[in-house]
Amino acid sequence: MNKILNFKLTARVISLNLFILSASFLICIGIAYMYSENLYPFIYSELIALSIGLILFFASRKVDANNDIQKRDAYFTVTISWILLGLIGSLPYLFSGAIPSFTNAFFESVSGFTTTGSSILTDIESLPKSILFWRSLTHWIGGIGIIMLVIIILPALNIGGYYLFTSESSFQEKIKPKIRQVGTQLLIIYFGLTAIETVLLLLGHMNLFESVCHAFGTVATGGFSPKNTSIADYSPYIQYVIMIFMLLSGANFIIHYYLIKRDFSKIKENEEFKFYLLLIFIIGSIITATLFFQMDKPLETSFRESFFQVISIITCTGYATSNYLIWPEIAWVLIFFSVKFHHVVNGKTSPFLCEVERSGTKQRKGEVSL
């Protein structure tokens, strides 16, 4: 009789998640040292994450390398991983006193890792730089899915990762390439988008700290900003850069893969991507005209504000350059409805995880033609 759960395999994967989280805390320790801030919140968090990770790792050292992670193991692993990430991710807020309430700290942590972007903070800029960096980093980790990072490691352990992969993303059919290859390609794209956006923001005279934090929030479509006013006080150049990268990051990562491979025919055939662009173009154009004619805004300002908000909300990023609730009713009604239309077509749980094309474009049943 099969076991209900393979706890050793689950413990091994969760331990790897915690090791990745520990490495993230080390980065924040460096940021805190750089800005002469209190190191202990991240040192304590690092020790707790590392200790739990080591306990689980050694408890699973005799894991059977011939066993695959099955569906029930995958669901349990993903669930426990997110709960642990949320709990341990709240520790820097608690230890630093930046968010003294456990409920609020846990909320902020979960919001970050799930790239939801909701926040209990009212004065963001009053927080230490290292805490703000951690807050944005949780977005970036959650955007790719920390389980995705483990997929790169699993093959080296001879532990099958297919079910874990499909539980974390929205794959519904068996993928053709090896999991490790797909995971590596996703990471390259994810790192690449983050690095390029950071450089472009630096060219717009945004400082390095804010450039990295905003790149994390953009590529993860999370929307955490280290500024109280989000993107509103930055130059039009900065707003256009973030707008473009929200658009790119909100697209199915399969499109980025085809772009790198110069397989433009696959991009052209992708009905989901075409609808995504068409939806943004139509709604953005209508709202641009509305702001220009009804609110007497300059044409460029109308275009920039309307398309920024449309892209931000359709991709669920949440960055803002203006208060769209003071726009004419037709504008914000269109924005709210566009979110529903986008998710109905995409069927996504996260816009950043590569997933099966749902457009039915010359694809054999049961395969993704990567």
Describe this structure in words.
- With 370 residues, the chain is mainly alpha-helical.
- The chain has a domain at 7-168.
- It has 16 helices and no strands.
Structure annotation, total helices = 16
Please trace the helix and strand order, writing H or E for each element: HHHHHHHHHHHHHHHH
Number of strands: 0
Low-confidence region ranges: 165-176, 345-370
Global geometry: globular
Distance between the termini: 38 Å
Q: Helix share of residues? A: 55-70%
Topology:
Layout: H1 7-34, H2 40-59, H3 71-89, H4 91-96, H5 102-113, H6 129-144, H7 146-153, H8 162-168, H9 179-203, H10 208-219, H11 236-250, H12 253-260, H13 264-269, H14 271-294, H15 299-314, H16 329-346
Helix pairs in contact: 1-2, 1-3, 1-6, 1-7, 3-5, 3-8, 5-6, 6-7, 6-10, 7-9, 9-10, 9-11, 10-11, 11-15, 14-15, 14-16, 15-16
Short description:
The chain has 370 residues and is an all-alpha fold.
Features:
disordered C terminus, mainly alpha, 16 helices, globular, 370 residues
